[in-house]
Amino acid sequence: MKLVGIVGSNAEVSYNRMLLNYMSKEFKPLVEIEVLEIADIPLFNQSKDETMSAPIQRLNQKILAADGVIIATPEHNRTIPAALKSVLEWLSFNIHPLEDKPVMIVGASYYDQGSSRAQLDLRQILDAPGVNAMVLPGNEFLLGKVKEAFDDKGNLKDNQTKKFLASTLIKFIQFVTLVNKLDEAAKPKAEPEDLHATGKIATTIEDVDMSAEDWVEQAAEKVGAVEGDTYVKLNRGILTVDQINYFLSSMPMELTYADSNNQFLYYNHVLEADEMFASRTPDQVGNPLANCHPEAALKGVEWVIQELRTGATDCVRVNVPTHGPDKFVVHNYQAIHDNDGNYAGINEYILDFKPIVDWYLKQTGQTLVGDVNAVTSASKKEEADAVSSASVKG
Question: Is residue 38 within 8 Å of 12, Cβ to Cβ?
């Protein structure tokens, strides 16, 4: 489980930072806690929207990627510090990373109350519309007389305090697990992928056998497809069909397109099948994806498509080490969307990027650090086959 801990102070010396650092170190076997600073977050100003600035986006992305959030707040004048309030304003203005995110509050202060009033205010803020965080109720950790609480190594001195902090964190971990399970259960189940392309979409060419070896010729005749020196107007230019073919064939990678109906419609035919990283042949074009993969790989193919179709990710990458140590081959599966944002298929591009890396290292005089073999042999052949290529004949 990955949590992020937000230091609720922009002070150079902060006991709340010390508390989060202690938690990150002490409970490392239990959970990963990354401590995040807010010192570089600009003061909130509604008239000057800095939502897309690097510091705010960095914090936003860290929160979105985390399973839960811990906020450590001091108490200033019976409430949270202005710096923390400003951060929460940014995180509820045009972005909302804390929405439905499990949050735990901890706090340290010089006095006996241990930031109790600040924590009460923070709970109300986190519950506000636009923030909508999910704060675990009744799970408070209030560290009072903080100047005396830590030793010179940044560890809590009192064993009872350590045990109580551990108990609150364990409860929060259980809370995060439960919330994430409920979120997962609430997600609509993706429909099984029709890898046989038995349905149709607006661009499906009907009354042509998808498995026909001359599907391209039959389909072209059916729809009156243009070719040769006929011009095609694109969204950012005008090219002839020949120029489009030249352009795609010049790409230093293998390109494949399969539409949202899971029909294999195109590849940039540059090399013969036995010379390609993922072999394809002209007679496969037009086939359903189920005809282009071995049976054992279909489950992996379906997983990749559903990741892209549902928006879980825009790109799936798979390292394929079976081409030997002299190549770094990566299969990239990029989601394609229409102008309205609807899923429109997959752009699979396969690239050996070792020549690019070698060129860059030569130009800059830099070297790779670490075990190169760890990169080139981390995956098994079976794993690569599970998702590789839109057209592995099997």
Answer: no
Does the predicted TM-score (pTM) go above 0.85? no
pLDDT digits (tens, 9 = 90+) for 245-289: 999 999 999 999 999 999 999 999 888 999 999 999 999 999 999
The pLDDT tens digits for 72-110 are: 999 888 899 999 999 999 999 999 999 999 999 999 988
Burial label for 52, CB within 10 Å (0-12, 13-18, 19+), is exposed
Neighbours of 185 (CB within 10 A): 8
